[in-house]
Amino acid sequence: MPTDDRNNQESDSNNPRHIAIIMDGNGRWAQKRYMPRAVGHQAGVKAVRKIVEYCAKHKVEVLTLFAFSSENWRRPEAEVALLMALFMATLQREIDKLDRNNIRLRFIGDRSAFSDKLQQKMAEGEEQTKDNTSLTLVVAANYGGHWDMCQAFRKVAEKIAAGEFKNQAICEDLINQHLSTAGLPDPDLFIRTGGEQRVSNFMLWQLAYTELYFTSTLWPDFDQNSLEEAIKSFKSRQRRFGHTSEQVLNKSVNL
Ligand code: IPE
Ligand code: IPE
Ligand code: MG
Questions:
Q1: Which residues have CB under 6 Å of ligand 2?
Q2: Residue 28 Cα: closest atom of ligand 1
Q3: Domain of residue 65, residue span
Q4: Is the pTM of this model over 0.90?
Q5: How confident is the model at residue 9 (pLDDT cuts 50, 70, 90)?
Q6: Which residues have C-beta within 8 Å of that of residue 98, sequence separation ≥ 6?
Q7: Exposed, middle or buried by CB within 10 Å (0-12, 13-18, 19+), for 99?
Q8: Burial of 197 per CB tally in 10 Å (0-12, 13-18, 19+)
Q9: Nearest CA among 189, 151, 203, 152 for reference residue 173
Q10: 58 within some domain
């Protein structure tokens, strides 16, 4: 794990500030080796460590990792139990390390479905690392884009009912402020490993203008070189946000 903080890190304005990853393919990685899916998930945790290290070292501000979706409860009970145990064990082992490396940990998703013990560990991890100033590591656990929007709309509706503001105050900024990602920049680069080309209910609102990158590499095989490839692809693209290519090239607009 790197020890330098953001001020010492290399700076490149074309780098993505926020990278969001659907870490897919653990099961297939294991099956290819005639091993149980659990082994693939364990190998997936190792890949997470390397990618976090890379992002902390290279001026990435936010890394969001999709760890467990609101739909993953549909998996066989034994696999869900294994994933929960792995999540707990990983937090127990890694929180101090993240803290020592000045990394801020944050969770998004409906945590009320998790055991009390796990919820407590998640809260402890967030509390312990809340003042850290290097990478923000966002772990999406029991997360779904539909859930995120519903909970935001619910909070907004409650505030309107309480008279805090009127219907007319509803705008994109207001919704942003009530999403689970409030205060974070939207992802610049979305990566999905494992070959599927779908979003699977991940950050639906926040991905509006994100650059999408799909790779057939299975998550346990996704390493720092793979991430560099993805970042290289990102840097080769022209983001226009609705402007024309000429406007962007002339720098006559603020993106
Ligand atoms: C992603 O890998 C990890 C989780 C969803 C928790 P998968 O378990 O979906 O792996 P595949 O897609 O079956 O290979
Ligand atoms: C998406 O992967 C969720 C995570 C990686 C946590 P899935 O493997 O669950 O996605 P689908 O079901 O194939 O779309
Ligand atoms: Mg999958």
A1: 22-24, 66-69, 72, 196, 198, 200
A2: 14
A3: 15-249
A4: yes
A5: very low
A6: 52, 105, 125, 129, 132, 137
A7: middle
A8: exposed
A9: 152
A10: yes
Which pLDDT does position 198 carry in this prediction?
98
Q: Which ligand is nearest to the CA of 219?
A: 1
Is 60 touching ligand 1 by the criterion CB < 6 Å?
no
Count of structural domains within the chain: 1
- The amino acid that residue 33 corresponds to is R
pLDDT, tens digit (0-9, with 9 covering 90-100), for 85-144: 999 999 999 999 999 999 999 999 999 999 999 999 999 999 999 999 999 999 999 999
From 73, 120, 58, select the one nearest 95 (Cα to Cα): 120
Cα-to-centroid distance, 118 and ligand 2 (Å): 21
Look up 24 and say whether it is catalytic: yes
Give the chain's end-to-end CA distance (angstroms, integer): 33
User: In the structure encoding, which two tokens stand for residue 156, read together?
Assistant: 């907004």
85 occurs within a structural domain: yes
Residue 44 included in any domain? yes
Measuring CA to CA, which residue among 183, 177, 107, 108 is closest to residue 148? 108
Distance, in Å, from the CA atom of 48 to the CA atom of 56, rounded to the nearest integer, reads 12
CA 92 to chain centre: 20
